[in-house]
Amino acid sequence: MIQASDTDFHPRDPNDRIWTETTYVAFNVPEAALHGTLYVLARPNLGVAMSSVVIARGVRRRPHEVDFCDPQIHLPCPTSYADFSLANGLSVQAKSLTDWRFQYEHKLGACSFDLQLRGLHHPYDPTDPKENPGAAKKSAHTDPRLGDAWSNGHFDLKGQITGTLTVRGEQYAVNCYEGMDRSWGPRNETPDRATCYISVNCGEAMSMWLTTMLDVSPDGHVRYDKVNSGFIVEHGAVTPVVEATVEAVTVDMLAISDHIVATDARGRRHEFFGSAIGTRPMGSINPSIAAFVSLMRYQYAGQVGHGGHGKLFGLNYLAQRLARNES
Length: 327
What we know:
Blueprint: E1 19-29, E2 34-43, E3 48-57, E4 68-76, E5 83-85, E6 90-96, E7 99-105, E8 111-119, H1 133-137, E9 153-167, E10 170-186, E11 194-201, E12 207-216, E13 222-234, E14 237-251, E15 254-264, E16 269-281, E17 289-300, E18 303-314, H2 315-322
Antiparallel strand pairs: 1-2, 1-10, 2-3, 3-4, 5-6, 6-7, 7-8, 8-9, 9-10, 11-12, 11-18, 12-13, 13-14, 14-15, 15-16, 16-17, 17-18
């Protein structure tokens, strides 16, 4: 179970070079087909941090088409991970597990935001069998497609995000339902990862978070494999997802549409239909990962919502399946 102390750096072996703590936040302005992310990766034992802020509007199929991308490496690591400011202009403040503030000011003035996240529930711990039945079934052998990001300490939080965003002189009011996650533990940046995350948000009445493994055939067809973790949030009540199937149409690895059927621990079947209103390859500070993100418009039981459909691939994983052998 997630504790209040999990907003800050965790106890660790000071000699563990690869100990890593991360924060990821997604937000959107659907009427402008705009979606953004902020990400921080800190290695406190090395005294360094890395951060990336990415904003895209509409359909973007190549990295150089993304509206704004600011990946920064080798920043000084903060002494606190619950309340800090980085040299790239990003500040994060955890007032509690469910009350967060994120501020950013680009050094050249191209982008800024001031966002508040109000959590809808106590953060979900996918490693706790009491919260995630699937955690008790996992074997000692870790699927290499999972990587370390979801193998160590982790929490996921759904919430309402409000505030203002300015991109190249144009200001937007942000008022969306989306989410964030935190992770911590020893982390190798292995290039064999192949995972998907899907975030569906229909206000306080219904939200879903789902992560799955991925397979890719030599012709580039993406298949959504076994569920890693997931949950449903309804008016603050959290129910884990125990089974799910995902089918999607992709172009250049970007999801254009998807169909999701998820069964929760109470035996209820939830069906979602999504269509992309924005896409982008995600600007990343991790050179071993290729990431592809779509802003989706979802239909669920007469409700309309929005959220992200992201795929994360290790470059070695893709090369083993897609690289051409010219002889």
